[in-house]
Structures are given as structure tokens and as C-alpha cells.
Fold this protein.
Amino acid sequence: MLYEYLKENYIPGEPIFAGDIDIPGMTEENLRYHLKKLTDSEIICRFEPGVYYFPKTDIFGERMSMTPDTVAVHKYIMRRGKRVGYYSGYTLANRMGLSTQVPLTQEISSNFAPALVRKITIKNRQYLIRRPVVEVTKENAPVLQFLDCLKDIEKCTEMEPEKCGRILTEYARKNAITKKKIDRFIANYPLKIYKAIYETEVEYVSS
């Protein structure tokens, strides 16, 4: 029963979180037993307690290990195909091209953050997980990332404000970020964000 459920819902290389498995009539104890059985028979692999996966194979037929970043993305950013978070802080600034610094600790804002701010370790990789200002959805994630960049612009970038403004303006155009969308969430951010908007001369898309 469990094997069929997993094959139907997960692809090779995708993290399987034990807490996400929902099979009517299967108790937690029964679930642990069957997960161990599938692991012992090498049908699935155990990444760490509560996290499993169907292994991918490389061109030589060797099993490929799953990376901590893959687990983090599936746990905190795209949970079962649903957008629940986004990269933030120094990580976001680097990915947006606002900073050349590559942070050692990945920063993520997620609906699944265990606390307001929590540093966690997945295998040997550290992550800083924050609660977002509002619940993250597919629709609002680009807007929240845009506002996060402006909020953190003084600490997360070494570039001139005008250059940051050009990068963020291009991002706003690419993601159809309008003033109306900004106004829905900007009240959740500190007042310094208005200073960042003024200094960067960032432009939104016309409504």
C-alpha cells in the first residue's frame, strides 16, 4: 500500500517527508515499519530521520545521493508542487544580481518556518529560516521578494542605489509587479522601505 502511494506521488530524487504521507487507516507506527522495510530492501533511501527518496541513477547506473539544498527547496520553498516560500536576505540579493557575495548560510522565508527566525542544519549545510510577513503563495512570492530586496538593500548589497534600482525595475517588469500589488503588502514592512524606493528610483509596472 505504501509503495504504491509513494510511486504515485513522488518521482526519483524528490524528498519524501514522512509527515506529509497521508494514507487512510495507516497509523504512524505502521508507517514507520513500512518505511524501514522499503529502506532495508533498498527500494527507497533514507536521507535523514523522517526524510526519504527514490534514488536517481547516473549515466553509469550508480545511485545518486540527494543534496541538502534539494531537501531545503522541497521543504521550505516548493512543498508538493505548491509555492510556500522564497529565498531571502543575502541569498536573495546574490540570486537577484544585487550582490556578488555568496553567503555560506542560505536564507529562506517560508510558511513552514518553525519559529520567527531559526537556524537549522540539513546534513552539513546551514539554513536560516524566517517566517514571511504574510503567507507565501505562487501569486505573491515575486512581490514579497521584490519588497524584501528593498527592505534589506542597505545591508545586502555593495552596489550604488541607482544600479540596484535598474535591476529591481527589470525584475518588476518581468514579473508584472504593479503599484496595486505593492500596496497590498508594503504596510507589513518597516518604514525604511520608502527610503529605499526613493533612493533606488525603482519603477513598477503601470497598472
